[in-house]
Amino acid sequence: MGRDYRGFPANESAQWRRYDGSPGKPVGYSNKSGAVFNLLRDDLGKVDDITDHNYEVAYSRGMPAGEYIANVHMYRGVGVTYPVSVKVEARLQNDSDTSSRPLAAATVLLRHENDQLTAFRFRLDDHGHLVAGSVNSIYKELRAASR
């Protein structure tokens, strides 16, 4: 997953989850690793950035069959001009010898503090292939707002 949002001074996060109905927390700023995903880069805005690009990166350890959900959550918006546009992308790389290929991408608009949106959901089959017609953005809460 990658995100590119410029000039963004706020704290915002993405949550990833392979959703099979079992208990467990989504991967995001407060839970950096889970059964499938690890959050490798948690970008908290413009502090200490040497470029205008802010992004977060999560990687998976395999892609078991099931539904995957990517949410974006504005948990702190100090000095932010809303709406904030966030680009979210999921890519799949089957092995180290091939390039990654896009699975799903979306741009969402965060309109206020604590806004949480589902950027996309998709299903993978037992062979790691995208299930036709499975990509959607039907909201599924992954993290309860604390404010």
Biggest sheet, strands in spatial order?
2-6-9
Spans of at least 5 consecutive residues with low confidence: 1-12
Largest sheet: 3 strands, antiparallel
How many helices? The count is 0
- Assign a percent range to the helix content: under 10%
Approximately what portion of the residues adopt beta-strand conformation?
A: 35-45%
- Class by SSE composition: mainly beta
Number of strands: 9
Q: Taking Cα atoms only, what radius of gyration do you get, to the nearest Å?
A: 15 Å
Tell me the domain tally: 1
How do the helices and strands follow one another from N- to C-terminus? EEEEEEEEE
Mean pLDDT: 76
Topology:
Layout: E1 5-6, E2 11-19, E3 37-41, E4 53-54, E5 57-60, E6 66-76, E7 84-92, E8 101-110, E9 116-124
Antiparallel strand pairs: 1-4, 2-6, 3-5, 6-9, 7-8
